[in-house]
């Protein structure tokens, strides 16, 4: 869809407000596509009193329709490959993906296993990787906040459809 | 357990992605109104083929892999694999290493049960207990990190012993943490047994009588909450449990409330055990040398994971790679009890009943 | 029940049906039985309330030490029962060509999960098992490919 | 306090639209912050609800297929409109309501439940399983808390002898020391719990139980529809709190009154939210019909008896206390 790029001050101001809102209230949804749930309990730990993601406005949502960020873990087992793609397509634009854990980057300890695709990047476009097995809650928070800051510079391009 | 899908039945699919499930699995509850009439589960979303991968890795690499079967009970898998390999090689780890292994597995039981207490309360909509129990769990995670260097997948085991020692400074930190947790445990026990709305959600829900428990074959706290006295630490003590005996905690409440009570009492028992281990930590070196090539042999090793009896069958063929590693995790046994007991209860009870057996999908999909 | 008495009772119970009984480890007894008296053996253990079924393990190409290994290799299935500290394992062998093993789901209903895994992982056909659906393998897994067999070297990515 | 402003300003800016949105967002923030503090967490910043709404408005709105498009778009708008309409008859910020006529209490309670009706219809509109279950639960909960909530509000109305909210508010201001919360304690409790049922706050959030049916009727909504529904809920929170404060806490004479009384109420509501586990839908309905409706009826009986015995009693009391 070609967006009519009006560069009037009103348009720029509106764009700034939209980016400010997106950066300050990123709702997340979590999907474990085959991980050993080490990363998943660290993601849940970020919601609890000591780390408390709600300070940054990040709320874990249940339905893909309500979410902006897909926090995905695990080396994408064959069974959950097209589920992952379906969830990604159910999310409204603008959407982002954070791959948590070294399994999502390169398959981690399960490289070469017969039922594993290997990395999340092969299934859906990923915006931020958080390495670690499992990464500490601080690292996960840093990854999501870094993604938000990168939004500050360039406003979100509409995601290209996944083939 | 795929029951026939008759068209007029209203089927509620709780799919791979669902806020109640921390890990993917596909449940289909056939419902009329709010009452569940049938339940079926499709696992396999987290299957990575670890048993096949273990055959292509030598023993130390296998230890690294087996720790990542499940993130919550990683030490127990590594302990079982290490004990099994030592049995294959007819080697016994030194007593100090055995005691440190038991210390770590009891700390892991504490953090796993607290994690479960939070998630089960969250399933029932009691978010405050979720937040409180996970806040207190951070103390155990700090202790584990101080002792082993990592919060999850602490890999303190090596084949033949342990890597890190327990210095006096760590000992005092653990004892201080245990005092704090003991107070919290009594608080949780009172909350779980007196809070009216919580009792409304757990009393007489998901009842499994003793006879059903014997036929459906659950293991661990789910079985002990229905009066079945099975606990590998008591039945066939392994590692340090020989010199630090555990007293069995059984409750014949048979319902979800009993499962909460059994697990909280188990945490109190773990705290007592940790204190006892730290008082009489045996002296000696930490590990013993194990040859790279393990002679041809075949063993069965059973270990008590936080969720129940973990069963390892290992077969070596003289090379430095195992010929067969069979991992039967406790969650696999507990599934039969959930699926057969679900009909009759309300749809709103399903997340609580599922959380009652503390399912770990990465454990049972391997 | 004390460890030794448990093992003794298991041995006496299974003596008539067993081809051979061994004690590989102090707390474990192995009972080699033929395919036909698998069900009666399981039935006797269950009737005597001898512990519970801990696991069904499939092993591909067992050690040639036991006589009668089929020429093109075969699968050995171990039914392990646990009673307190004692373990009793019933060992059954089935050649690749027609790996047919009678199901024990009618005696122990909870064994259906173990059998489903055995069927899809090692290609052993449990006759009469109530449910043969994939337990942990993905839906689009090709037919006839059994991952835990030594002959399987990896899913040739299509 | 009388407010003489141009009706358009009344409608669009001050107690009406814009101010109500800001007040709703602030109250939602106070509510989330308090619940977080009770749970030992830090909780969101004060601009969080504003950022949520703007972000949702800027998101792409997906209309799922198998859904009646017109209804899908219209329901959130109707829901928010009915909530805003109800705001006109309620003494917001201590000023007299912009419009009031005899019998507007019934109209306000009806308008507030139109919002829940829209939610139920929105859920039933889509084919998604979770929304269908959510819709049935929303409607069952609507029918269960409506009666006790209405009966408990009737208490002060009967004592004040009128159906007009502004007059009840004036009556409550006159009898200042005798707050209705003390004289009609049962009515106050049932009204408070009724408000929490109406806004589907935990422990009554079975219709949108996150761990059972994802987001209940709102599962399929994204972007604008979701923003309007959330805004409607916030506005209803403000209206509900003002209504209960006006009736049971000695009326709202000036903005300061409004502020500290609703602050107390939201403190109590947040505490109740974090104290209990979520009740199943059959438990909530059982609680309402067995406890709620019965208590409210007893309360009404007591008031009616009090009305007729009042002339007799007042001489007795005046004799006692010297008038």
Question: Can you describe what's shown?
Answer:
The complex is a heterotetramer of chains A (163), B (366), C (158) and D (323). Chain A has 163 residues and is an alpha/beta fold. Chain A has five helices and five strands, in the order H-E-H-E-E-H-E-H-E-H. Chain A has helices at residues 9-24, 38-45, 81-90, 102-106, 137-153, and strands at 27-32, 59-60, 69-73, 96-100, 128-130. Chain A has a five-stranded parallel sheet with strand order 2-1-3-4-5. The longest helix of chain A is centred in the C-terminal third of the chain and has 17 residues, at 137-153. Chain A is globular. The mean pLDDT of chain A is 86. Chain C is α/β, with parallel strands linked by helices and 158 residues long. Helices cover 21% and strands 29% of the residues of chain C. Chain C is built from three helices and seven strands, in the order H-E-E-H-E-E-E-E-H-E. A five-stranded mixed sheet of chain C has the order 1-2-5-4-3. Chain D has helices at 7-12, 17-38, 48-58, 69-87, 104-125, 129-160, 165-174, 180-183, 185-198, 210-213, 224-248, 255-275, 281-321. The longest helix of chain D is centred in the C-terminal third of the chain and has 41 residues, at 281-321. Chain D is globular. In chain D, 51% of the residues are buried. The model of chain D has no long low-confidence stretch (mean pLDDT 86). Chains in contact: A-B, A-C, A-D, B-C, B-D. At the A-B interface, strand 1 and helix 2 of A face helix 1, helix 4 and helix 5 of B.
